[in-house]
Amino acid sequence: MKLLSFLCFASITFFSVSCENETKVQLNAAEAAADSTNYTTVQWLDSIVSFGSINMGETIQVKFRCKNTGDKPLVITNAKPGCGCTVADYTKEPIAPGKEGVVTAAFDSKKAHGGTVEKSIIVTTNTSNGTEHYLKFMGEVKGAPSNDKIVVPHAMPAEKKS
Description:
Immunoglobulin-like; four-stranded antiparallel beta sheet; alpha+beta; elongated
């Protein structure tokens, strides 16, 4: 019984410390982004990516690399996809000057339309050359109905005879 109590206590302590550390990292990122004295500059090595073509229902990952070109740590605070068919993730730790980080987009074509697709991600950083950066990826989804609309002109009503 003592062993079980000890294991429960140790587990709770471990997870609370882990959550506390994660909260501190998020708080530090938010503080860095809010303090313009900590701003740096970023160069996007891949700001537009073409994934080629995939079949309807497939999921593909797209990576966008960035480089810290300033002299302070680069902090990515958010990566927000433009739609629900894309999930974004990013380097959570501060990126040292001269080093690279990554924003990853996972695109699920199950909910997409067929044909050419263009998706975007808005990335928020602590950078003096703009705090919002727009990343774009595109490609072809095969085997799905097209999203092109077919427009049929309305017939003009016949003139009334008097």
